Amino acid sequence: MPRKKTPKSRKRLFRVAVMAAVRDPLTYGAPDSLEVWPGQRVTVPLGPRKVAGVVIEPVPQMIAGVEPRDILETLDSEPALSPELLTLGLWIAEYYLAPTGEVFRAMLPLGSNARRVWVLHLTDSGRERLEEIKSNLLAEIREGDESNLLAYIEAHPGAALETVRTKFSDPRRQIVTGAIKQGWITASSEERERRKVLAVKLASPPPDSAAAETRRPSAAARRILEALRDQHLARDHRQLLNSADATLGTLRGLERQGLVELFDSRTGLPREIDPPSEGAESAMSSEFPASLTLTTGQSSALEALCEQLAEGQFRAILLHGITGSGKTEIYLRLVAECLDRGKSALLLVPEIALTPLVRSQFIERFGGQVALLHSGLTDAERRQEWWRIWRGEARAVLGTRSAVFAPLSNLGLVIVDEEHEASYKQQETPRYHGRDVAVVRARLAKALLVLGSATPSLESYWNAQQGKYQLLTLTERVQGRRLAEVEIVDMRQEFRETHTQAPVSRRLHQEIEAQLRAGRQTMILLNRRGYSWFLLCRSCGEAVTCINCSISLTYHRGERRLICHYCGYATSIPAHCPVCGSEYLQYIGEGTEKIEEKLRELFPQARVERLDRDVAGRAGRYLRVLSDFRAGKIDILAGTQLIAKGHDFPGVTLVGVVSADMGLRLPDFRAAERTFQLLTQAAGRAGRGEMPGRVLVQTFYPEHYAIRLAADQNYPGFFSKEMGFRRMMHYPPTTALAHIIAQDETLERAAEIAHDLGQFITEAADERQIRMLGPNPAPLARIEKRYRIQILLKANSRTHLNRVLRHMADECDRRHIPPRSVMIDVDPASIM
Ligand code: ADP
Ligand code: ZN
Ligand code: ZN
Q1: What does the pLDDT read at residue 685?
Q2: Which residues form the pocket of ligand 1, taking CB atoms under 6 Å from any ligand atom?
C-alpha cells in the first residue's frame, strides 16, 4: 500500500514582496499559528537574513519540488495596506519596472517598525582565537578588550552592534572593526521588528465577580487594574507596566482572565475611546469663512467640480487657471464639499515649505481632521500621522509626492496643485511620478481628480486635448487685477552699448530705483545658487571639477568653498590650477550670492535679502525671510526658483529675471518647457496686490519662443509651438520615453553593461514600434564616482515599451547584473 502523504500540500502559501533588491515577489508558507492577510507586513527569511515584506496574495499551488520557507511573524494585526493601495503598488512596480519590495517600502512608513540593525557573530577563526586566549597561549592580551569582546559575542550570538559598542565604550567602532578585519567576527544586517506597543483598557463589560474571585489577582496585577481605573485607556503598555511595576506576563494573565483588553496601539484602538468627533466636523465645515466672494470664473469652475464630485465616479479635470486666479480657494472649498459628503480628500503640493499659506488655511478650515505628510517630518511624526489617517481620524490630507500613498479610505477627491512641477517625479527607485500615480489612485478609488496649474505640463494639456481630461480654465485674476506687463531686455544690445557684462542692466537698475522711491517691493530671480558658476583657469582653459562627477564646482562665498551641486563634495579654493599649476584662476558667471552682493552695492539704502536652498537649509530662516518680505520689511528679495513659485506677495510690483535663458542651454528636451514655466510663474508673482505689476526679463536670446511666449503669457501659443517640436523629434507626450543608464565605477564596465542592455533590448524590440538611441555617454558623464552610459527608448506603444523593458530587466537578473548598475527611468523628468 502506498504510504499516505502528510497533508503538507494544504499549507497556505502567499506571494510576498520582500524589501530587498529582489525584483519580483517570492512565495512563502504560513505556519498554522499565523493569521495572514494580503496587505499585511511580515518578516520573512531571505538567505541568511531576516527581512520585512508585504503580503500580496494567496497562491493556490506549490510549484513541484520547491519547498517554500515560512513567514516568520506578522508586523500588523490588521493589514496596513488596503486592497486599493496594494493594487496601486503593483501597478507602480509593473509600470516603472521597480522591485515590488522597494515600491512598498516607499509606500509605508516602515522605517518605523522594522528597523535594520547590525548583528555580530563569532566566526570559526574567532572561536579559535578565543580558545587560544583562554588556554593562556596569548596571556598578554587576556584581559584586553579583544578577548572580552570575543567572549561576549560567544556568549551572545547575534548581539546588536549598538549594544556592543556601548558596552565596550567603542564609539568609533575601532575595537569591533578591528575584530571584523581580523576575520574573528562578522557583522550582518537584519530587519528587526520594534516591539509592538499595546494599548490597554479595562474589559467591558467587567466579568461577573464570581469568575473574578476564582483567581485572586496578584499584587502586581492589582496595581495594573488600579492604574487603569484612573486612566481608562493606557496607550502604551510599557508605561503602564513601568508605573505599576509589573511585567508583560502579568498583563497577559489579566487578558486571559478577561479582565483587560489589549489592542495594537497603531491599528486597533477601540473606537468608542477615540470617537472621530462627528459634531466638531460638521461645525467646522459649516462655519466656513464666507468672507470671500468668488469671482464668476471661480464659482463656475467650483460648480462644475462639485457636480463631478457628486457623481461619485472617476473623473479627471485639468484646471488651467492663470497666476493669481484664485485656484487655492477653489481647492479648499472643494475639499470641504468632499468631507461634507462623508468622503476623504487628498491635496498634493510640490513642497509644503513653499506654501505656508495653503498649509495654514488648510489647518484653519479643516482642523483636527487634517494630516500633513511631507519630508520635514521625523520618522516618528510621519508614523503617527500615517496611522491617524489609517484609523480614519484624519480625512483631509495635505502632502508632498509620497502623500499620494496616504492610507485614506473612502477617498472622494485627489487634487494635484502645480501639477507641472518636476518635484512630483521621484529621482530614485521607485521612480514614480506623483501626478501620474494620483491619476491611477483616483481611478481605483472612483474619485474626482483635479490637476491644477497656470502652466500645465505638455502631458496634461495634451491629455485634455485628447479628451482624456476635461479642461476648465480661469482666465481672470481675482478682483479684476491685471496680469503684469512683461518687457524683454536684450542683453546683447546692452553689451554693445555699455561694453560691460553687468548682471543688472541699465533698464532693470532704473526700474528698481523707481520701485524703491515709491516704497514698493522687488523680486530678482536668478536660478543658480552660489557666488559664481565655476572657477576657470585662464592658462589652460580648464574649470575646476568635482572629484566624483564630471561637473564643474560652484563657488559658494558664504562657505568659502567650491561645492558640487550633484554629490555635495566640497573643497577649499585652490591657489593654483589643479591641472596646469597656473595661478590665474578666474570666477565665471554669477549666482544668487553675487547678485545679492551686487544689489547691496548698487542700492545701499535698500533692505536686500536672499532666498535659495542654501538659506532655506537653515531652520526657521526661510520662513522668516518670507514673512519679513510679506510684512514689507525687505525691499528687494533675490533668489532662485524658490521665490518664483506659488507665493502670494501683494506688495511686489516689480519682478526682474536676471538670466532668463540659463535653462535653455541644457541638453534636455524639456528645457524650453521649464524655461517657459519658470518665466510665467515668476511673472505671476508681480501685481498680485492693488498696484499693477511689471516684469523685466534679461536675456541673450530675446527671439526664443519660450521667452517670447512667456512674456506674452500665452500658454496655448507655447503649447502648440512646443508640441510641433516634440512630435517632430519623437518626444513625449506623443511618444513614450524611457531613459536607461548603465553605471559603474569604471568606464569599461559601464560600457560593457550598456552594450549588453542594448542587446537585450534589440532581442525583444519590434523596430516598427520602438527606436533605440545609444548607447552613448550621458550628458552628465560621471556622477558620484560612477561613469554613466545612456540609452533612450522612444516608443509608439506603451505596452510594447513595457514589454521590452521587462525583458531587459529579466535578462539583467538572469545575468546577475546588479540593479544598482542599471537605472531604468520610465517617463523621465530629464534625460541628463
Ligand atoms: P493662484 O494659485 O491661482 O495663483 P491664489 O490661490 O494664490 O492664486 O490666490 C491669490 C490670492 O487671491 C490669494 O491671496 C487669495 O486669498 C486671494 N483670493 C482668492 N480668491 C479670491 C476672491 N474671490 N476674492 C478676493 N481674493 C481672492
Ligand atoms: Zn590650468
Ligand atoms: Zn560631485
Answers
A1: 85
A2: 292-295, 298, 321, 323-329, 478-479, 648
Q: Return the residue whose CA atom lies nearest to atom 26 of ligand 1.
A: 478
- Shortest CA distance to 197 belongs to which of 156, 170, 246, 234? 234
**Three-state SS at 415:** strand
Q: In sequence order, which residues have a C-beta less than 8 Å from that of residue 578 and are 6 or more positions away?
A: 544
Contact 414, 437 (CB under 8 A): no
The residue whose CB lies within 8 Å of the most ligand 1 atoms, and thus the one to mutate among 295, 296, 328, is 328
Question: Which ligand is nearest the CA of 478, by number?
Answer: 1
Query: How many other CB atoms sit within 10 Å of the CB of residue 480?
Result: 7
In angstroms, the CA 153 to CA 120 distance is 7
Say how far apart CA 425 and CA 422 lie, in whole Å.
Answer: 6
Grid-cell match 512598498, residue found? 104
Residue 534 pairs in a beta bridge with 588
Residue by residue, what is the 3-state secondary structure of 66-82? Answer: CCCCECCEECCCCCCCC
Residue identifier of the C-alpha nearest atom 19 of ligand 1? 326
In angstroms, what is the span from residue 564 Cα to ligand 2's centroid? 19
Read off φ and ψ for residue 794, nearest 5 degrees: -120, 125
* DSSP letter, residue 203: -
| Ranges under pLDDT 70 in the chain | 1-10, 62-65, 110-117, 137-143, 171-173, 189-196, 205-215, 266-290, 353-354, 617-619
Per the CB < 8 A criterion, the answer to whether 777 and 789 are in contact is yes
Q: Which atom of ligand 1 is nearest to the CA of 295?
A: 23
Beta strands in 454-595 (DSSP E): 470-474, 485-490, 521-525, 534-537, 554-556, 561-563, 570-572, 585-588
Helix (H, G, I), strand (E, B) or coil at 93: helix
Ligand 3 centroid to Cα of residue 548, in Å, is: 5
What are the distances in angstroms from CA 119 to CA 181, 233, 505, 657? Answer: 16, 36, 63, 55
The confidence score (pLDDT) of residue 458 equals 97
Query: What's the confidence (pLDDT) of residue 214?
Result: 52
- Can you give the pLDDT at residue 277? 36
Query: Whole-model pTM?
Result: 0.80
Q: Determine which residue's CA is closest to atom 20 belonging to ligand 1.
A: 326
